[in-house]
Write a structure and sequence with these properties.
The chain is mainly beta and 747 residues long. 6% of the residues lie in helices and 60% in strands. The N terminus is likely disordered.
Length: 747
Amino acid sequence: MKTVLYSLLFLCPLLVFARDESTIHGFVRDFDNGESLPWVNVLVKDTSLGAATNENGYYVIHNVPPGDYVLLFRMMGYEEHEKKVQLKANSTLKIDAALKPDIIEMEDIVKTAERERFEREVEISTTTLSARQLKTMPMLAEADVFRTLQLLPGVVSRNDFSSQLYVRGGSPDQNLILLDGVVVYNPFHLLGLFSTFNADAIKEVEFITGGFPAEYGGRLSSVLNITNNEGNSKEFEGSVTISMLSAKATLQGPIPRGSCLFSARRTYFDQLLKGTRYDFPYYFYDIQGKINFNINENHRLTLSGFYGDDKLDYDMDSTEDDEDFQVNIDWLWGNRTTSLKWRWLIHPDLFSEMTLTHSNFASNVDLDLISTNIASLNIENGILDESIKTDFNYFGIDGHGIKFGLCQSWLDFKYSFGIDGNQLFNYQTKPTLTAMYAQDQWQISKLLSARAGVRLEHYSIGQYTTFSPRLGFKYRLYPNFALKGSFGLYHQFLTTAASDNQNFNFIDLWFPLTDQYQPMHALHYVGGFEWWLPADIIFSSEIYFKSMGNLLEINEYGDFSDPSDDFFIGDGTATGFELLLKKTMGRFYGWLGYTFSLTRRTINSVTFYPKHDRRHNLNLVLNYDLGLGWNLGFVFTYGTGMPYTPVLGKYVRYRWDYFDNQLDDVIYNRIGSKNSERYPTYHRMDLSIRKRWRIWGLENYPYLQIINIYNRENVFLYFWDHDANPSKLVTVPMFPFLPTIGIEMNF
């Protein structure tokens, strides 16, 4: 690993000075707020030379002969911008530009960006969502990133009460979730009902459901890359949103030589219901911010952070058989993430970003059981991830976009359990993970492009070193039709204490792999096409196969003090076929997605369909601009019922109760084969209505959202009530008809 590192460092100067040609380069930003603009066309007028800006708004044009030229900056939704330039022989010229928004609706920008991606990038199984798309979706109380992603092909949610993502047969712990480049380990509030990400602060969401490139690693299934707004560098602006769930505010504006953004959210039903019979002493809050500072034209610093907590402080009293019983629960859990990024334009052909990251998830539960005796339980767990990573982008070879980088992570896992001040279990380990990668996007011809890469990772526990090749291609068979495919090998070195027997998972408890477990691995095979149809409609289809090995599932009956039997080991496969019909422009936009999938796992020598195996899944998402400021959102979801393990009967066992000095009979369920039955078909329709108007110079968006508009009783789970005679099957439903209201105010 050290040899490769030193080789890369040695090659950097060679790459920088390998070229001695005339070059034009620079950054393109939005004139109104200073945000970087990706996928802007930059053309040298009256020539065939040109380029498009990347995700940082940066462009490079090589091999420009000396002379006087006009640079043309063009992007739909913005006014065309021209700049006269004079280029000398063997020179480099930096030309930045700021584009003014045009009167054309901003959704045209989305269309242009998608078209540029289609023409220039080798992207497999990738979906990009804007903040505007998130806010117009009908959701429970307020916009939610994870709930929106659950409506995409290849993604499954087990039930209405969880926003966890099951991607192409994978588990939630197999998803790499990044916020401004920082790994977030438990991105959920209210025991998984809502995600931690405030949609008001988000600039863009990139979601890769398979075949992701070598720059990403450490997970088997997907990558969710969330980027917050940079902040308005021109003027101060803000928004306030009040919903039935929470109140939130976002403020952004300029600072000397930069910009800043601050956003905060807090729920308040703990205060509204305080003292009533529905008193629920729980709340969550989150705060996130971002500061950009331009040191000079070649150096920029970005400080980003997220801080959020969930707090439950619950006291329960009861009197039974003249015996007082009291339970006091004090439970605090939350995330802290911080990143400091240094962007350095080393040379027009070499662009680097060095990032220091800090991510911490911690949970602390104090439980007091008070009756004739007092028992106090304390449970703590947490994960700390401190990393340093550097990414390089090299543009100096025509037809190639080379990217390579290094990452070093120091991890700290802690779990403890104590009773009445006596610590019964205390586990702490500090593994390290080293990774490096290199990839090249090669424009082989006008029709064929490929992206090849490799990732090396070294995990300190067990001294495992893994080699992960990645390959993707795109072939433009016609100007509006492209074939695409990918292959990749992926490895993972940590897992969560989750069991497929659970219907609901409150919090993910992360565990590092010990030296007795080999790294989990997965092979991805993906193929498909993308077709741009008239009327701004995009039709795409993909077929995938995923094989997974060394999968771990918690042994619920193991001895917690003996790590040798903490997990069962197994493997699995996932096969699927996806269709997506999408329209991103105009007054009427949305998508229709369908997925056929088949997922199998073999754990502890038992082969079964996991609870997230949904055979058919259909999602229809529509938004319509009705005019006069009215917007209508519509979502319909239909899916095959999830698997469950049936109860075939019951039996009685007798045991002696030493406290009451009597023989008790206890009824047990006799269960069938694991996950051999399915719940009834799931379907639900949601609706949202938004109205835009101006009051006192403020832009307001009051909205009404209705979840499950026709009150479908979808089944969450079955259980048998053996207190009834005869025993009775009880059905627990999911969300009923549930309306919510709110208002967003911009200033």
